[in-house]
Amino acid sequence: MKLxxxxxxxxxxxxxxxxxxxxxxHAVYIRDVHGGDDAPSKLFQLDIVKDGVEMEFEVRAxxxxxxxxxxxxxxxxxxxxIPEEDELHFEVQNVELRLRATKxxxxxxxxxxxxxxxxxxxxxxxxxxxxxxNGEMVADAxxxxxxxxxxxxxxxxxxxxxxxxxxxxQKKEYLPFRGGKDQVEALYKEWFNSMRKGYEQAEYLPSLExxxxxxxxxxxxxxxxxxxxxxxxxxxxxxxxxxxxxCFNALNLGEKYPExxxxxxxxxxxxxxxxxxxxxxxxxxxxxxxxIKPPIFAYIYEQxxxxxxxxxxxxxxxxxxxxxxxVMTYYEEYRTFEGRLPHYKHGNxxxxxxxxxxxxxxxxxxxxxxxxxxxxxxxLSSFAERLGEKEEAEQFKNQADxxxxxxxxxxxxxxxxxxxxxxxxxxxxxxxxxxxxxxxxIGYRLDKDIMDCLVSDLEGSFETKFGLATEGLTSNYxxxxxxxxxxxxxxxxxxxxxxxxxNGYEEVGNRLRDKFLDLTLTGGMAENFDPLTGKGxxxxxxxxxxxxxxxxxxxxxxxx
Length: 560
Description:
Blueprint (H helix, E strand, L loop, with lengths): L16 E5 L6 E5 L9 E9 L2 E3 L1 E5 L4 E5 L7 E7 L2 E15 L6 E6 L2 E6 L4 E7 L3 E5 L11 E14 L11 H20 L8 H13 L1 E2 L9 E2 L9 E2 L2 H9 L4 H13 L10 E2 L4 E2 L8 H11 L6 H21 L8 E2 L2 H4 L13 E2 L1 H20 L3 H22 E2 L2 E2 L2 E2 L4 E2 L20 H15 E2 L2 E2 L21 H13 L3 H18 L4 E2 L6 E2 L5 H16 L2
Antiparallel strand pairs: 1-2, 2-3, 3-4, 3-8, 5-6, 6-7, 7-8, 8-13, 9-10, 10-11, 11-13, 12-13, 14-15, 16-17, 17-18, 19-20, 20-23, 21-22, 23-24, 25-26, 27-28
Helix pairs in contact: 1-2, 2-13, 3-4, 3-5, 3-13, 5-8, 6-8, 8-9, 11-12, 11-13, 12-13
Organism: Neobacillus driksii
Keywords: Glycosidase, Hydrolase
Family: Belongs to the glycosyl hydrolase 63 family.
């Protein structure tokens, strides 16, 4: 694949290193995604210098390597690979590859031995060892009391390595450049073949290549708060693992990589608060509980059990079961007013940050949250039966029944579902958000006439050439590139398709599935998409989009 590093960073499975090009300045940077997306990520700006003159160059990247070409020349002058998770390898010929540090006040470079420099990066709590294995390396880094004024390093005619670590560097033998390239190529080939699942047609191959690479290259290794490998949303802008988002990545991994799939769920079960709430997001340094996403772990786990017997293991099922019970208790004890339905305290809680439903105020009783809880109670009841917990199975079914009756009583009328806001639970008149149609996920409980109205509404008010807009197309709240006020989102698309196909509306579900597959050929694997043009919006290298594409492609291949 020809990789455009303005859109998709060059990286590899397990690594915090990545390389990307800024769209406006066209500057190319080595970056590091430790510390999450609030931490500075730029380490070095890369340039090519020949005979003392800065040269124009272009970058050509694949899944395995990134090469620099002088303008109008056919042979590369420098190449970069990531053969191990914490190692960047450089091979440079006939030019100087210049590394200019984007350093902070206390960041400091020091030469420890000939051709061996250690760079301390204070804001990231990170150290780099920069080594000359067999070439020419010089550093211009004048010292000024507490750090270098600047750092300008030149690599020429040889093989060089940058290795990252937290505390102490351990000397080692490094693979030769060609051997390292062969190693990473073999690793990626295995991943790609597992993602393609025998797909041989040309139609969706560009999307398949992008989705496979983005999911592979967005994984980071365990360190700090991360106790296992985590698939970040992206290494471009949004480098954390978010609750809710993680579930769609886990679902895609379940068939071929069950251990890695389970790890995406376990990261949140291991960091679950004593109240029962999962964190909003986790990275290697931070665990944030600012927002609490809807409970879909059980909903996803039920599907994972269908994909791989690994998930039917009683110990794992018990872990998900007990953890989900705590989540449900959290909503009952901390998010529910007497006689009311559980509520959101911010749009970000729902994952639909700025949806029109939340424009009136907070807290909001929302039918999607109630539906996720009802679905979770129903699934917990089936899990309890499987685990031999007969009394709890009946208890969860009763709780689902009670919530369902309250949902219809408080948030449904002849015009459909709506929300309530504030301490008094006043009716929200704004009904133009797609989020109000998510009760379709409990379609097996709804009367057929309600379901028929929901499906008709989807087709008439939200469906475009490319899929389901998140705000009604004629709504006064609709905004071009409006985040949750119009653009198409992959996880939401998956939820609707899955619900439609499992509740008797297979034709509509398959049509939306095929539209989403086609959409990726126009908009790539972006965070979201313009519903009228298909253009990819915001972060253009997103794993949940990639995972949903791969899930839906597999669904199409199976003819389900």
